[in-house]
Amino acid sequence: MNPAVVLVDTSVFLNILDVPGFNQRRHDAIQVLTVMVNEPRTSLLLPIPAILETGNHIAHLSDGRQRRKYGGIFVGQVAQAFDGEAPWQPTGFPDSRVFQSWLAAFPENAMREIGLGDLWIVKEWEAACHRHPRHRVRVWSFDRHLSGLDRTP
User: Fold this and answer.
1) Is 16 domain-assigned?
2) How far is CA 103 from CA 65, 110, 115, in A?
3) What is the CATH number of the domain that holds 67?
């Protein structure tokens, strides 16, 4: 198997965390995650927008006990990612000039129903393709507009 870089989208992260209302594909997510974790040539990345969007979804759960429970699970998983103890590592924050260029591209992307978080993930994918020209680079997502981002060298 060729080396691979996989960016984990919000839709997958929510399933892995088993967040109620966002966990319809949890079994699929866990199965695929298990395979990827056991593949030494696969690197998993957790984009910052996936972290932010996941936190927002948890904050809007209708049951306060669930918000507390899944908020704690979320914080633990993200902290482990930043500490290098999770199967994925977080991506970084762009510098202000890079982010401003993404903002300039946002209105056109919004017309195609691509939100700022998804645009950020697309830009992370493009950067990973550039950094890893000999690796497969893909976004692991259950959302159709991001799941098509898959570049094989």
Assistant:
1) yes
2) 36, 11, 11
3) 3.40.50.1010
